[in-house]
Amino acid sequence: MLDSKISRRGFIKASAATTVLVSAGTASFQNWSSKYVKASGKTEIKEIASTCNGCSSKCGIIGHIKNGRLWKLTGHPDHPSSKGKLCARGHGYATLVYSKERLTQPLKRVGEGKFEPISWDQAYKEIADKLNTIIKENGPGVVSLTEDPRATGKFYSPRFIQALGSPNYYTHHVVCSNSRDAGFFHTLGVTATSADIGSSKYIMFIGRSYGDAIRPSSVQSLADAKEKGAKIVIVDPRLNNTGNFANEWLAIRPGTDLALVLAMSHVLIKQNLYDTEFIKNYSIGFEEYAKELENYTPEWAEKLTGISADTITRIATDMGKAKPKALIEQSWRGAFGCNYENSTETGRAVALFNAMLGNIQQQGGSIIGAKSHLGALDPAKYPSPKKPELKKAGQEEFPLAYEEQGVATIVAKNAMEGKMKAAIFHHANPALGYGNPKYMKKAFSKMDLIVTIDVQMSETALLSHYILPDVTYIERDEAIESLSGKTPGIALRQQMVEKVHPETKPIHQIYSELAKACGFSQYFNFSLDELNEAMLAPTGITYQQLRQKGTIMFPDMTVELGKMPELKTPSKKVEFSSEKFKEAGFSPIVKWGEPKVSPKEDSFRLITGKQAIHSHSQTANTPILMQITKDYDLERIWMNPVRAKDLGIKDGDLVEVKSSEAVSKVRVKVTERIHPEAIFVPSHYGITSPYQKTAVGVGFGYMEHVPFDFEARSGAGNIQEVIVKVRKVKG
Ligand SMILES: Nc1nc2c(c(=O)[nH]1)N[C@H]1C(S)=C(S)[C@@H](COP(=O)(O)OP(=O)(O)OC[C@H]3O[C@@H](n4cnc5c(=O)[nH]c(N)nc54)[C@H](O)[C@@H]3O)O[C@H]1N2
Ligand SMILES: Nc1nc2c(c(=O)[nH]1)N[C@H]1C(S)=C(S)[C@@H](COP(=O)(O)OP(=O)(O)OC[C@H]3O[C@@H](n4cnc5c(=O)[nH]c(N)nc54)[C@H](O)[C@@H]3O)O[C@H]1N2
Ligand code: SF4
Ligand SMILES: [Mo]
């Protein structure tokens, strides 16, 4: 268990040492340069408002286009994610448009890792023929489409797969937030709340790092809260870079967050600090939960979490007193998005703790966001495909998973069992990031057709029969993005420069043309502009206005604080007890459950997380971002000095990391900022595609060590149920 003196000392040292990294992650350009060049004569500069594609925050950006080339980006002042600033990835990833390692033409696989260029017409014809044959022989339930949903994909991709008669549309959430989403959805009726950080008095982050998994406006809101005197506590086995803002770091034993939240809930009841009025008016099942909570004393939780009973009691009491301006931030991936067998239950417990504080729809609390009211295509003119009667693969096994997202890794499992024959991957790299790469490769080899639509030669593209080259986000218009939150709005991605490679095509065009080859062009008989016009119709905003502004917010539709909305749960209330869980064969109330595996004296749990300068696997091949990795040795794994000493390992040593699945070699960063039971591996490395020359061979991918698995409730990947041993090797 961690010595609190060590962690405190490490905390102070780390805060100073990491300031540089965090500020590098939120740097923003000033407008001075634009004015300077404008004043200097001949150069033509255009400014185009659009959105970033560096991560799922999709910040608003202003592209400054100099003589037809992308010159620089600045943050869109109105977009809720950017609020005028961009992060380092936002600036760096845009260089992709001019990368020499992009996909430039359709490719057909002719052998292991071997491809030949083909025409679009040939690609469409062969893909359509194969899809139609597979469906004719096996029915449409054996084809699937998976993506990281971005604006155009969100509309076109489900429509395309439905036109094939298949319900099998999946998103990346299975290795992101499926557990949290299921936990929240069945408790509050939304997969996530947002947090009114700037007005909160007491904020707890459980494995959510605004300082690493950066969204510029979130960093700003945290700085505002701090300035106003909010108390900020981070719960993380690792002192992450939010530490710069925090008053306190609780170095929890990984995988035990559920015990912490249960014990804090226990304290709220014991001290009579929960919101009885809120519970009476807006919830069901509280009595049952309160009875279960009697078991979960702070002393009980201390043994599991390593956080002292006094600390648990003090923090829960202070949060109870600060309510409703106190909250556990809803989190994302870090602690309970997709990591452990108990993650969905942690999600539920967090949502319920916030409900006990009565902070839902309160200033400084948890917000159930509002959505913009957008229009749809006229069905008389533009028919939609019929909703397939089949159930989405995976829904039977995981009925608690949020249906729209599904359980994407069921595609691999069913392929392994011969039940999934075809997969389309758009804007996704499942071969590297969704599950154990060896498992994925074997499963994918059993499918008759894999089509990948990407901008670079990803690990998934390498395993595909056909690769279709998308244009980059700098070169395309997209469908309108609806922004939900405290104040809803809309944003538009727009083409900033001419296509660099003539044989690349935007996704809406690819789907429409492939639909024609498949024989269902009637479902794609509209242009992207017609779709956008239809979406805009009810807003009273013209397409021209949106094109000019890029982001438009609807302040009139801001959620009314202090007013509880009707929830989308079966009871329309907060569910302390869930019939849905009972129907699925689980306890209707949250109970403590252990993670599946736990490290012993001589082993570690492998945990992972983001770094401010990279996104998943997609940015690793960006030279100016990878250079930062190399300059600061950021690909190293983190190990606590106590464990390092025992193993004879010094800072910078080369070690071998061994699990049931793989052996990797990497150098070590020895630091007090990590719990002794855990090894932390930054998540962005271990690219194996030889076509990504900048990225290949740097660090290792944590997924190599993750056994292919599903969390029983949400179907999430259980990606931190991983035990490793580490030993020093010569290097
Ligand atoms: N820089 C960057 N930012 C991003 C992204 C990116 O790729 N790069 N991706 C975006 C996306 S898709 C996502 S999902 C979010 C993720 O956003 P976050 O969830 O905030 O990010 P992570 O770094 O994955 O995890 C946060 C912290 O969880 C900690 N953690 C690990 N295990 C445990 C545990 O058992 N208990 C607790 N309490 N903490 C634990 C890690 O040490 C880490 O510091 O980031 C978004 N923003
Ligand atoms: N190893 C590893 N695995 C992870 C994570 C990680 O950080 N590391 N993060 C986890 C999390 S939180 C999430 S949300 C998921 C994310 O999982 P993915 O969505 O698969 O994210 P990436 O691994 O970045 O892969 C994105 C792919 O989209 C491609 N791409 C980028 N821009 C475009 C474009 O404009 N058009 C098209 N067609 N393709 C494009 C990239 O080249 C890349 O191949 O991964 C999870 N798994
Ligand atoms: S947080 Fe950074 S990478 Fe993500 S969308 Fe915003 S600027 Fe782009
Ligand atoms: Mo994610």
TrEMBL record:
Signal peptide: none annotated. CDD domains: MopB_CT_Thiosulfate-R-like. Residues 45-101 form the 4Fe-4S Mo/W bis-MGD-type domain. Its cofactor is Mo-bis(molybdopterin guanine dinucleotide). Its EC number is 1.8.5.5. It holds the Pfam family Molybdopterin. It is an enzyme of class 1 (oxidoreductase). InterPro entries: Asp_de-COase-like_dom_sf, MoPterin_dinucl-bd_dom, Mopterin_OxRdtase, Mopterin_OxRdtase_4Fe-4S_dom, Prok_Mopterin_Oxidored, TAT_signal, TAT_signal_bac_arc. SUPFAM superfamilies: ADC-like, Formate dehydrogenase/DMSO reductase, domains 1-3. Keywords: 4Fe-4S, Iron, Iron-sulfur, Metal-binding, Molybdenum, Oxidoreductase, Signal. One of its GO terms (molecular function) is oxidoreductase activity. Belongs to the prokaryotic molybdopterin-containing oxidoreductase family. PANTHER family: TETRATHIONATE REDUCTASE SUBUNIT A, TRIMETHYLAMINE-N-OXIDE REDUCTASE. This is Thiosulfate reductase molybdopterin-containing subunit PhsA. It comes from Neobacillus rhizosphaerae. The lineage of its organism: Bacteria, Bacillati, Bacillota, Bacilli, Bacillales. The gene is phsA.
